[in-house]
């Protein structure tokens, strides 16, 4: 999706504070951090929301979850972290390219949108 902001970041057309990249994923710091550690992991493949993910995306989603603790640990969330995927309007999703929030670096409140 050429006009999708996270596709543009994944292509390198827009700058980001990148912390990790491989063939399938990019991870970068959230521009408006809600915690001392606030990183977004995105698949390079454009999937608009978790609700749009299909059975063929299951291995990709699994690898994205597997990646999260590694990135959290390496970027200052050694004592634990929270993962969030906001989905759709009621979920508070603002960017319609699937992304996994990683939040940590301090104890988090019991509920936090992101
Ligand atoms: P959502 O509400 O869709 O789950 O979260 C979108 C997140 O993307 C927000 O936390 C917002 O701060 C972040 N964000 C939006 N635009 C940009 C951007 O251009 N660069 C970075 N690094 N983060 C962004
Ligand atoms: Zn996209």
Series of secondary-structure elements, N-terminal to C-terminal? HEEEHEE
Overall number of structural domains: 1
CATH topology heading: HIT family, subunit A
- Strand % is 15-25%
Radius of gyration: 13 Å
Mean pLDDT figure = 95
Q: What is the oligomeric state here? A: single chain
Domain HIT: 5-112
Protein name: Histidine triad nucleotide-binding protein
Pfam families: DcpS_C
Active site: 99 (tele-amp-histidine intermediate)
Describe this structure in words.
The chain starts with a helix and ends in a 10-residue tail after the last strand. It has 114 residues and is an alpha+beta fold. It has one domain: HIT-like (HIT family, subunit A, 2-Layer Sandwich). 21% of the residues lie in helices and 22% in strands. Guanosine-5'-monophosphate binds next to β2. Zinc ion binds next to α1.
Topology:
Elements: H1 5-11, E1 18-21, E2 25-29, E3 37-43, H2 58-74, E4 81-84, E5 100-104
Antiparallel strand pairs: 1-2, 2-3, 3-5, 4-5
The site of guanosine-5'-monophosphate has 14 residues, from strand 2.
Short description:
By secondary structure, the chain is of the alpha+beta class. It has two helices and five strands, in the order αβββαββ.
């Amino acid at each position: 999706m050429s006009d999708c902001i996270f596709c543009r970041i994944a292509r390198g057309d827009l700058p980001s504070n990148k912390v990790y990249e491989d063939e399938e994923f990019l991870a970068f710091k959230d521009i408006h951090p809600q915690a001392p550690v606030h990183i977004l992991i995105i698949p390079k493949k454009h999937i608009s929301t978790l609700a749009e993910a299909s059975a063929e995306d299951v291995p990709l989603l699994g690898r994205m979850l597997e990646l999260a603790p590694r990135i959290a640990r390496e970027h200052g969330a050694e004592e634990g972290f929270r993962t969030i995927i906001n989905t759709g309007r009621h979920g508070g999703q603002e960017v319609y390219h699937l992304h996994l929030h990683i939040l940590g670096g301090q104890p988090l409140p019991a509920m936090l949108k992101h």
